[in-house]
Amino acid sequence: MLIRKSFHDVPTKLDPHGRPIRIFVISPNIPDYPHARFPGVVVFSEIYQVTGPVERFAGQIASQGYVVACPSIYHEFEGPDAIPYDVDGTDRGNNYKAQLAAYDEDTTLSIDLLVSLNNCTGRIAATGMCLGGHLALRAAFDPRILASVCFFATDVHSATLGKGKSDDTLARVRRGDLTENGELVMIFGKQDTHVPRVGRDLIRSTLEDAQVTSSFVEVQAQHAFIRDEHSKGRWDAALTRSLFSFMMEVFDRTVGRDLGPKAGDIKEIEHVC
């Protein structure tokens, strides 16, 4: 399926400098069907913003029939351009990550944008890698996110995301904020030095104890194994292709078609009537 690219500069409330967040949008393009509508996916980037690998990943999702929104997560500190995959860029990205304050608002704005688009059905999923994996997990707190697939999410087990390095992600999971929400998939490489086994075990047990509808996948891979550029020898193309197909099965099943209300919801509606 053909795709087209655009962007929207959306006003924010939490940016201290009053700058908008740029949200890149990649949409299916079917010239003979100008009124076609598709489900949406928010794709959260790693610490380098929307780089070539992130854009290609998002483009692949769009070409499967999804409107994809990619927020520029560091709008609090600089413009929307990608940060280089080098030592200085890595230091800059990690420094910004430790100061983030607007990440939940950014998620809300990204979902709001997708829902507002004429070519989107309003059925929304989320995914992301590294920092973006954590943001995709937090996106699942929004009931409009019907499925979230998180690749090697960082800082979840240590609760060190953002300003003050004291996020409440797992605390909210324990509180039940995901229990009645959509489907969640967590994917980790067993050789990922950013998320050691004890951290993965903590995330898995927290999700299971909270009775979250979730899948937990551990594969023989390192951190950033889906990144096809500057991966430091960690990119596994075959494994990436397999897990991409797994992700699309989740999206196709949860947001790719409108199944109507759940059986339990139907019973409640009938009882009220």
TrEMBL record:
Gene3D superfamilies xrefs: alpha/beta hydrolase
Database matches in PANTHER family: CARBOXYMETHYLENEBUTENOLIDASE-RELATED (PTHR47562:SF2), PTHR47562
Molecular function, one GO term: hydrolase activity
Keyword Hydrolase: yes
Domain Dienelactone hydrolase residue range list: 34-241
One Pfam assignment: DLH
InterPro entries to which the protein is assigned, alphabetical: AB_hydrolase_fold, Dienelactn_hydro
Top-rank taxon, per record: Eukaryota
The keyword DNA repair belongs to this UniProt entry's keyword annotation: no
Protein name (record): Dienelactone hydrolase
Keywords attached to this entry: Hydrolase
Source organism: Collybia nuda
